[in-house]
Design a protein that fits this description.
With 426 residues, the protein is mainly alpha-helical. The protein has 19 helices and no strands.
Protein backbone atom coordinates (compact mmCIF):
# COMPACT_ATOMS: atom_id res chain seq x y z
CA UNK A 1 0.00 0.00 0.00
CA UNK A 2 2.92 2.37 0.56
CA UNK A 3 3.47 2.39 -3.20
CA UNK A 4 -0.02 3.82 -3.70
CA UNK A 5 -0.26 7.57 -2.93
CA UNK A 6 -2.24 8.34 0.22
CA UNK A 7 -4.83 10.43 -1.61
CA UNK A 8 -5.42 7.57 -4.06
CA UNK A 9 -5.88 5.16 -1.15
CA UNK A 10 -8.62 7.41 0.27
CA UNK A 11 -10.25 7.68 -3.15
CA UNK A 12 -10.26 3.88 -3.51
CA UNK A 13 -11.82 3.57 -0.06
CA UNK A 14 -14.48 6.10 -1.04
CA UNK A 15 -15.37 4.26 -4.28
CA UNK A 16 -15.50 0.86 -2.57
CA UNK A 17 -17.55 2.32 0.29
CA UNK A 18 -20.13 3.76 -2.12
CA UNK A 19 -20.39 0.40 -3.88
CA UNK A 20 -20.84 -1.51 -0.61
CA UNK A 21 -23.34 1.08 0.62
CA UNK A 22 -25.49 0.71 -2.49
CA UNK A 23 -25.26 -3.07 -2.17
CA UNK A 24 -26.29 -2.98 1.49
CA UNK A 25 -29.27 -0.73 0.74
CA UNK A 26 -30.43 -2.51 -2.40
CA UNK A 27 -30.16 -6.02 -0.91
CA UNK A 28 -31.33 -4.96 2.57
CA UNK A 29 -28.15 -6.35 4.14
CA UNK A 30 -28.46 -5.11 7.72
CA UNK A 31 -25.26 -6.86 8.78
CA UNK A 32 -23.27 -5.04 6.10
CA UNK A 33 -24.74 -1.66 7.08
CA UNK A 34 -23.94 -2.39 10.72
CA UNK A 35 -20.37 -3.40 9.83
CA UNK A 36 -19.81 -0.25 7.79
CA UNK A 37 -21.23 1.84 10.62
CA UNK A 38 -18.91 0.16 13.15
CA UNK A 39 -15.81 0.59 10.98
CA UNK A 40 -16.53 4.27 10.28
CA UNK A 41 -17.55 4.97 13.88
CA UNK A 42 -14.36 3.46 15.30
CA UNK A 43 -12.25 5.56 12.95
CA UNK A 44 -13.96 8.80 14.01
CA UNK A 45 -13.78 7.71 17.66
CA UNK A 46 -10.02 7.21 17.36
CA UNK A 47 -9.68 10.69 15.84
CA UNK A 48 -11.76 12.26 18.61
CA UNK A 49 -9.69 10.48 21.25
CA UNK A 50 -6.67 12.57 20.31
CA UNK A 51 -8.53 15.89 20.09
CA UNK A 52 -8.15 17.27 23.68
CA UNK A 53 -4.38 16.68 24.08
CA UNK A 54 -3.74 17.58 20.43
CA UNK A 55 -5.55 20.94 20.60
CA UNK A 56 -4.08 21.95 23.95
CA UNK A 57 -0.45 21.08 23.23
CA UNK A 58 -0.58 22.35 19.63
CA UNK A 59 -1.90 25.77 20.65
CA UNK A 60 0.43 26.12 23.66
CA UNK A 61 3.45 25.25 21.51
CA UNK A 62 2.28 27.44 18.63
CA UNK A 63 1.76 30.49 20.87
CA UNK A 64 5.19 30.06 22.48
CA UNK A 65 6.79 29.50 19.08
CA UNK A 66 5.64 32.95 17.99
CA UNK A 67 8.52 34.27 20.11
CA UNK A 68 10.88 33.13 17.35
CA UNK A 69 8.76 34.44 14.47
CA UNK A 70 9.55 37.86 13.08
CA UNK A 71 6.56 40.24 13.22
CA UNK A 72 4.49 37.61 15.08
CA UNK A 73 1.82 40.11 16.16
CA UNK A 74 1.37 41.34 12.60
CA UNK A 75 1.09 37.75 11.31
CA UNK A 76 -1.54 36.93 13.94
CA UNK A 77 -3.58 40.04 13.09
CA UNK A 78 -3.36 39.39 9.34
CA UNK A 79 -4.42 35.77 9.87
CA UNK A 80 -7.47 36.88 11.85
CA UNK A 81 -8.34 39.50 9.23
CA UNK A 82 -8.20 36.93 6.43
CA UNK A 83 -10.31 34.57 8.52
CA UNK A 84 -12.91 37.34 8.77
CA UNK A 85 -12.73 38.36 5.12
CA UNK A 86 -13.16 34.83 3.79
CA UNK A 87 -15.97 34.13 6.28
CA UNK A 88 -17.78 37.27 5.12
CA UNK A 89 -17.46 36.23 1.47
CA UNK A 90 -18.69 32.71 2.31
CA UNK A 91 -21.74 33.87 4.25
CA UNK A 92 -22.59 36.35 1.46
CA UNK A 93 -22.56 33.47 -1.03
CA UNK A 94 -24.76 31.42 1.31
CA UNK A 95 -27.29 34.24 1.62
CA UNK A 96 -27.21 34.87 -2.14
CA UNK A 97 -27.87 31.22 -3.00
CA UNK A 98 -30.63 31.11 -0.39
CA UNK A 99 -32.36 34.13 -1.94
CA UNK A 100 -32.02 32.68 -5.44
CA UNK A 101 -33.18 29.14 -4.68
CA UNK A 102 -35.74 29.61 -1.85
CA UNK A 103 -34.75 26.23 -0.33
CA UNK A 104 -37.71 26.14 2.08
CA UNK A 105 -40.47 26.87 -0.44
CA UNK A 106 -42.68 23.89 -1.22
CA UNK A 107 -40.91 21.60 1.26
CA UNK A 108 -43.25 18.75 2.21
CA UNK A 109 -42.35 18.53 5.90
CA UNK A 110 -44.51 19.04 8.97
CA UNK A 111 -42.82 21.73 11.08
CA UNK A 112 -45.15 20.94 13.98
CA UNK A 113 -43.45 17.58 14.40
CA UNK A 114 -39.96 19.04 14.62
CA UNK A 115 -38.25 19.22 17.99
CA UNK A 116 -35.32 21.38 19.00
CA UNK A 117 -31.96 19.56 19.08
CA UNK A 118 -30.53 18.70 22.49
CA UNK A 119 -27.38 20.71 21.73
CA UNK A 120 -28.20 24.38 21.21
CA UNK A 121 -26.31 27.63 21.22
CA UNK A 122 -26.94 31.20 22.33
CA UNK A 123 -24.72 34.23 22.75
CA UNK A 124 -24.87 33.93 26.54
CA UNK A 125 -24.03 30.22 26.41
CA UNK A 126 -21.26 30.96 23.92
CA UNK A 127 -19.67 33.68 26.05
CA UNK A 128 -20.06 31.93 29.39
CA UNK A 129 -19.10 28.58 27.88
CA UNK A 130 -15.65 29.82 26.87
CA UNK A 131 -14.37 29.81 30.46
CA UNK A 132 -14.49 26.36 32.07
CA UNK A 133 -15.65 25.95 35.65
CA UNK A 134 -13.26 23.02 35.97
CA UNK A 135 -10.19 22.73 33.72
CA UNK A 136 -10.17 18.94 34.08
CA UNK A 137 -13.84 18.82 33.09
CA UNK A 138 -13.07 20.60 29.82
CA UNK A 139 -10.77 17.74 28.82
CA UNK A 140 -13.07 14.99 30.12
CA UNK A 141 -16.07 16.42 28.23
CA UNK A 142 -14.01 17.22 25.14
CA UNK A 143 -15.16 20.86 25.12
CA UNK A 144 -12.82 22.15 22.42
CA UNK A 145 -13.75 25.82 22.86
CA UNK A 146 -12.80 25.72 26.55
CA UNK A 147 -9.62 23.79 25.77
CA UNK A 148 -8.67 26.47 23.22
CA UNK A 149 -9.24 29.19 25.85
CA UNK A 150 -7.09 27.36 28.41
CA UNK A 151 -4.35 26.72 25.86
CA UNK A 152 -4.25 30.36 24.73
CA UNK A 153 -4.01 31.61 28.33
CA UNK A 154 -1.36 29.06 29.32
CA UNK A 155 0.61 29.63 26.10
CA UNK A 156 0.57 33.41 26.55
CA UNK A 157 1.65 33.05 30.19
CA UNK A 158 4.50 30.70 29.22
CA UNK A 159 5.56 33.15 26.51
CA UNK A 160 5.78 36.00 29.03
CA UNK A 161 7.48 33.92 31.73
CA UNK A 162 10.30 33.09 29.32
CA UNK A 163 13.13 30.73 30.26
CA UNK A 164 11.52 29.64 33.53
CA UNK A 165 8.67 28.06 31.55
CA UNK A 166 10.97 26.15 29.19
CA UNK A 167 10.62 22.77 31.02
CA UNK A 168 6.83 23.05 30.73
CA UNK A 169 7.06 24.05 27.06
CA UNK A 170 9.45 21.18 26.36
CA UNK A 171 6.97 18.79 27.99
CA UNK A 172 4.22 20.09 25.72
CA UNK A 173 6.44 19.74 22.65
CA UNK A 174 7.21 16.13 23.58
CA UNK A 175 3.56 15.34 24.29
CA UNK A 176 2.51 16.94 21.01
CA UNK A 177 5.04 14.83 19.11
CA UNK A 178 3.75 11.69 20.81
CA UNK A 179 0.09 12.54 20.14
CA UNK A 180 0.82 13.37 16.51
CA UNK A 181 2.77 10.15 16.07
CA UNK A 182 -0.14 8.11 17.44
CA UNK A 183 -2.60 10.14 15.38
CA UNK A 184 -0.64 9.46 12.19
CA UNK A 185 -1.12 5.75 12.87
CA UNK A 186 -4.87 6.43 12.94
CA UNK A 187 -4.67 8.55 9.80
CA UNK A 188 -2.97 5.67 8.02
CA UNK A 189 -6.28 3.85 8.55
CA UNK A 190 -8.17 6.65 6.76
CA UNK A 191 -8.84 4.58 3.60
CA UNK A 192 -10.58 1.92 5.73
CA UNK A 193 -12.38 4.61 7.74
CA UNK A 194 -13.46 6.24 4.49
CA UNK A 195 -14.93 2.96 3.29
CA UNK A 196 -16.98 2.60 6.48
CA UNK A 197 -18.14 6.22 6.74
CA UNK A 198 -19.18 6.65 3.11
CA UNK A 199 -20.64 3.15 2.90
CA UNK A 200 -22.80 3.68 5.97
CA UNK A 201 -23.95 7.09 4.72
CA UNK A 202 -25.04 5.63 1.37
CA UNK A 203 -26.73 2.65 3.03
CA UNK A 204 -28.53 4.78 5.62
CA UNK A 205 -29.55 7.86 3.64
CA UNK A 206 -31.43 6.94 0.52
CA UNK A 207 -33.28 9.17 -1.90
CA UNK A 208 -36.54 8.70 0.04
CA UNK A 209 -35.00 10.62 2.92
CA UNK A 210 -33.16 13.18 0.80
CA UNK A 211 -36.00 13.92 -1.64
CA UNK A 212 -37.93 16.44 0.53
CA UNK A 213 -34.69 18.31 1.23
CA UNK A 214 -33.07 17.86 -2.18
CA UNK A 215 -33.17 21.58 -3.00
CA UNK A 216 -31.60 22.52 0.33
CA UNK A 217 -28.94 19.80 0.06
CA UNK A 218 -28.07 20.92 -3.46
CA UNK A 219 -27.89 24.56 -2.35
CA UNK A 220 -25.42 23.68 0.45
CA UNK A 221 -23.20 21.67 -1.90
CA UNK A 222 -23.30 24.38 -4.58
CA UNK A 223 -22.48 27.10 -2.05
CA UNK A 224 -19.56 25.16 -0.61
CA UNK A 225 -18.32 24.25 -4.09
CA UNK A 226 -18.37 27.93 -5.13
CA UNK A 227 -16.25 28.89 -2.12
CA UNK A 228 -13.96 25.87 -2.48
CA UNK A 229 -13.38 25.96 -6.24
CA UNK A 230 -14.02 29.62 -7.15
CA UNK A 231 -13.47 31.96 -4.19
CA UNK A 232 -10.35 30.31 -2.80
CA UNK A 233 -8.63 29.96 -6.21
CA UNK A 234 -9.39 33.62 -7.03
CA UNK A 235 -7.96 34.75 -3.68
CA UNK A 236 -4.86 32.61 -4.18
CA UNK A 237 -4.32 34.02 -7.68
CA UNK A 238 -5.13 37.67 -6.93
CA UNK A 239 -3.99 38.14 -3.31
CA UNK A 240 -1.20 35.59 -3.20
CA UNK A 241 -0.08 35.60 -6.88
CA UNK A 242 -0.15 31.80 -6.70
CA UNK A 243 -1.27 29.03 -9.05
CA UNK A 244 -4.48 27.60 -7.49
CA UNK A 245 -3.91 24.19 -9.12
CA UNK A 246 -0.64 23.83 -7.21
CA UNK A 247 -2.51 24.57 -3.99
CA UNK A 248 -5.08 21.83 -4.57
CA UNK A 249 -2.34 19.40 -5.55
CA UNK A 250 -0.70 19.93 -2.16
CA UNK A 251 -3.80 20.32 0.03
CA UNK A 252 -6.06 17.70 -1.55
CA UNK A 253 -5.25 14.87 0.94
CA UNK A 254 -6.40 17.08 3.83
CA UNK A 255 -9.56 18.10 1.95
CA UNK A 256 -10.32 14.44 1.17
CA UNK A 257 -9.83 13.33 4.77
CA UNK A 258 -11.99 16.22 6.02
CA UNK A 259 -14.78 15.17 3.64
CA UNK A 260 -14.96 11.64 5.02
CA UNK A 261 -14.03 12.22 8.69
CA UNK A 262 -16.19 15.35 9.14
CA UNK A 263 -13.74 16.72 11.71
CA UNK A 264 -11.51 19.75 11.21
CA UNK A 265 -9.59 19.01 14.40
CA UNK A 266 -9.15 15.35 13.51
CA UNK A 267 -7.77 16.41 10.12
CA UNK A 268 -5.46 19.03 11.66
CA UNK A 269 -2.18 17.05 11.45
CA UNK A 270 -2.79 16.35 7.75
CA UNK A 271 -3.73 20.00 7.18
CA UNK A 272 -0.55 21.21 8.86
CA UNK A 273 1.59 18.75 6.91
CA UNK A 274 -0.10 19.91 3.69
CA UNK A 275 0.42 23.59 4.51
CA UNK A 276 4.10 23.00 5.27
CA UNK A 277 4.46 21.07 2.00
CA UNK A 278 3.03 24.13 0.26
CA UNK A 279 5.99 26.17 1.53
CA UNK A 280 4.48 27.90 4.57
CA UNK A 281 7.14 28.26 7.31
CA UNK A 282 6.67 25.62 10.00
CA UNK A 283 6.79 28.16 12.85
CA UNK A 284 3.89 30.12 11.35
CA UNK A 285 1.96 27.03 10.20
CA UNK A 286 2.11 25.59 13.72
CA UNK A 287 0.18 28.64 14.91
CA UNK A 288 -2.21 29.30 12.02
CA UNK A 289 -3.41 25.74 11.38
CA UNK A 290 -4.35 24.75 14.99
CA UNK A 291 -5.98 28.14 15.48
CA UNK A 292 -7.86 27.80 12.19
CA UNK A 293 -8.94 24.23 12.95
CA UNK A 294 -10.92 25.52 15.93
CA UNK A 295 -12.17 28.88 14.61
CA UNK A 296 -12.07 28.95 10.78
CA UNK A 297 -15.34 27.38 9.58
CA UNK A 298 -16.53 28.79 6.25
CA UNK A 299 -18.68 25.72 5.59
CA UNK A 300 -20.17 25.05 9.03
CA UNK A 301 -20.31 28.62 10.34
CA UNK A 302 -20.99 30.71 7.22
CA UNK A 303 -22.57 28.98 4.22
CA UNK A 304 -24.64 26.40 6.09
CA UNK A 305 -26.23 28.58 8.82
CA UNK A 306 -27.08 31.25 6.24
CA UNK A 307 -28.89 28.76 4.01
CA UNK A 308 -30.42 26.92 6.97
CA UNK A 309 -31.77 30.15 8.50
CA UNK A 310 -33.46 31.05 5.21
CA UNK A 311 -34.80 27.49 4.92
CA UNK A 312 -36.24 27.51 8.47
CA UNK A 313 -37.75 30.98 8.01
CA UNK A 314 -39.52 29.89 4.81
CA UNK A 315 -40.79 26.62 6.30
CA UNK A 316 -42.27 28.47 9.30
CA UNK A 317 -43.57 31.37 7.16
CA UNK A 318 -41.30 34.06 8.61
CA UNK A 319 -40.17 36.91 6.34
CA UNK A 320 -36.54 37.97 6.75
CA UNK A 321 -35.46 41.56 6.15
CA UNK A 322 -32.16 43.28 5.42
CA UNK A 323 -31.40 43.56 9.14
CA UNK A 324 -31.82 39.81 9.53
CA UNK A 325 -29.37 39.09 6.72
CA UNK A 326 -26.85 41.49 8.30
CA UNK A 327 -27.28 39.63 11.59
CA UNK A 328 -26.60 36.32 9.82
CA UNK A 329 -23.36 37.77 8.43
CA UNK A 330 -22.38 39.14 11.85
CA UNK A 331 -23.00 35.83 13.62
CA UNK A 332 -21.01 33.95 10.98
CA UNK A 333 -17.95 36.19 11.21
CA UNK A 334 -17.92 36.59 15.00
CA UNK A 335 -19.34 33.28 16.21
CA UNK A 336 -17.29 30.79 14.20
CA UNK A 337 -15.48 29.53 17.29
CA UNK A 338 -18.78 28.11 18.56
CA UNK A 339 -18.42 25.23 16.09
CA UNK A 340 -15.12 24.26 17.74
CA UNK A 341 -13.85 22.03 14.95
CA UNK A 342 -15.89 18.92 15.74
CA UNK A 343 -18.39 17.10 13.56
CA UNK A 344 -21.66 18.86 12.96
CA UNK A 345 -22.72 22.53 13.03
CA UNK A 346 -25.80 22.35 15.25
CA UNK A 347 -24.44 24.80 17.83
CA UNK A 348 -23.70 27.42 15.18
CA UNK A 349 -27.09 26.88 13.52
CA UNK A 350 -29.03 27.24 16.76
CA UNK A 351 -26.95 30.31 17.65
CA UNK A 352 -27.98 31.87 14.33
CA UNK A 353 -31.65 30.88 14.72
CA UNK A 354 -31.85 32.24 18.26
CA UNK A 355 -30.24 35.53 17.19
CA UNK A 356 -32.88 35.91 14.46
CA UNK A 357 -35.70 34.82 16.76
CA UNK A 358 -36.53 31.78 14.60
CA UNK A 359 -37.86 28.52 16.11
CA UNK A 360 -35.01 26.31 17.28
CA UNK A 361 -37.19 23.34 16.36
CA UNK A 362 -36.40 24.23 12.75
CA UNK A 363 -32.94 22.79 13.24
CA UNK A 364 -34.58 19.44 13.96
CA UNK A 365 -35.89 19.32 10.39
CA UNK A 366 -32.31 19.13 9.09
CA UNK A 367 -30.81 16.68 11.58
CA UNK A 368 -31.63 13.62 9.45
CA UNK A 369 -29.37 14.73 6.59
CA UNK A 370 -26.74 16.51 8.69
CA UNK A 371 -24.02 13.84 8.12
CA UNK A 372 -24.43 14.20 4.33
CA UNK A 373 -24.16 17.99 4.56
CA UNK A 374 -21.29 17.87 7.04
CA UNK A 375 -19.00 16.18 4.53
CA UNK A 376 -18.84 19.12 2.10
CA UNK A 377 -19.00 21.66 4.93
CA UNK A 378 -15.92 20.21 6.64
CA UNK A 379 -14.02 19.91 3.36
CA UNK A 380 -14.67 23.63 2.80
CA UNK A 381 -13.59 24.43 6.36
CA UNK A 382 -10.27 22.64 6.00
CA UNK A 383 -9.54 24.13 2.58
CA UNK A 384 -10.03 27.59 4.11
CA UNK A 385 -7.76 26.68 7.02
CA UNK A 386 -5.03 25.89 4.48
CA UNK A 387 -5.72 28.80 2.11
CA UNK A 388 -5.37 31.60 4.67
CA UNK A 389 -1.85 30.80 5.99
CA UNK A 390 -0.72 30.18 2.40
CA UNK A 391 -1.94 33.60 1.29
CA UNK A 392 -0.55 35.36 4.38
CA UNK A 393 2.86 33.70 3.92
CA UNK A 394 2.88 34.62 0.22
CA UNK A 395 2.04 38.27 0.94
CA UNK A 396 4.68 38.40 3.70
CA UNK A 397 7.32 37.03 1.33
CA UNK A 398 8.04 34.01 3.55
CA UNK A 399 6.43 31.35 1.34
CA UNK A 400 8.85 28.87 -0.23
CA UNK A 401 7.60 29.11 -3.81
CA UNK A 402 9.73 26.24 -5.03
CA UNK A 403 8.12 23.98 -2.40
CA UNK A 404 4.69 25.36 -3.36
CA UNK A 405 5.18 24.53 -7.02
CA UNK A 406 6.36 20.99 -6.27
CA UNK A 407 3.95 20.15 -3.42
CA UNK A 408 1.76 17.86 -5.50
CA UNK A 409 4.73 15.83 -6.75
CA UNK A 410 5.43 14.31 -3.32
CA UNK A 411 3.12 12.03 -1.39
CA UNK A 412 1.77 13.42 1.86
CA UNK A 413 2.97 10.39 3.82
CA UNK A 414 6.48 9.38 2.88
CA UNK A 415 8.47 6.70 4.76
CA UNK A 416 11.28 9.11 5.59
CA UNK A 417 8.88 11.71 6.95
CA UNK A 418 6.79 9.52 9.22
CA UNK A 419 9.71 9.19 11.59
CA UNK A 420 10.06 12.94 11.96
CA UNK A 421 6.90 14.62 13.12
CA UNK A 422 8.03 17.15 15.72
CA UNK A 423 5.89 20.21 14.89
CA UNK A 424 8.18 23.04 15.96
CA UNK A 425 11.93 23.04 16.49
CA UNK A 426 12.86 23.54 20.13
Amino acid sequence: MRRIPFSVQILLGLVLGVALGFLARAAHLAWLTSTLDTVGGLFVQLLKLAVPPLVFTAIVVSVVSLRGVANAARLAVKTLLWFGVTALIAVSIGIGIGLLTDPGRGVNLDPAGATAPKTTGSWIDFLTGIVPTNPVGAFVEGNVLQIVFLALVVGAAALLVGDAAEPFVSLNRSLLSIVQKALWWVIRLAPIGTLGLIGNAVASYGWDLLAPLAKFTTAVYVGCALVLFVVYPVLLAVAGKLNPLRFFAGAWPAIELAFVSRSSVGTMPVTQRSVERLGVPREYASFAVPFGATTKMDGCAAIYPALAAIFVAQVFGVNLGVTDYLLIAFVSVVGSAATAGLTGAIVMLTLTLSTLGLPLAGAGLLLAIDPILDMIRTATNVAGQAVVPTIVAAREGTLDRAAYDSAGKRDLIEPAETERLDPVPA
